[in-house]
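User: I'm preparing a small set of examples for a lab meeting where we compare how different chains pack in three dimensions. I only have the primary sequence for this one, and I'd like the structure in token form so I can line it up with the others. Please keep the answer compact; I'll paste it straight into my notes.
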Amino acid sequence: MEIPKINVIYNFSEFLKKFNIIPLAFSLVISLNLNQLVNSFSINIITPIINSLFQNNNIKLEERNITILNVTFPFGKFLISLTQFFMTVLTLYLMYILYNFITNEELNIVINPIPKK
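Assistant: Understood. Below is the structure token output for the 117-residue chain.
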């Protein structure tokens, strides 16, 4: 019985093409860097603006807590995480629109005009 010869390089390249591994890897790297950028923007730009709203107490947003029934909830850290999440979603949405504009694909967005009275 003869052992069939397998072209490993060819099979590997077909695997990469079939499962779109290369675009997936690029997407992962871009999303990780995007996450870092959004976190930095949120912590270094948005958080100081929010801190300035609470300037009279001299307490930073990260240090803001709510205590209910002797349980302390760090809502400042939650607000920062929530801001980072919404900024990431907004950035991805804008990238989606930009991608569709560049590739001339039709956007699957329905914009309803405000009816005039």
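A couple of notes for your slides: The chain has a mean pLDDT of 75. Strands lie at 66-68, 71-73.

User: Perfect, thanks.
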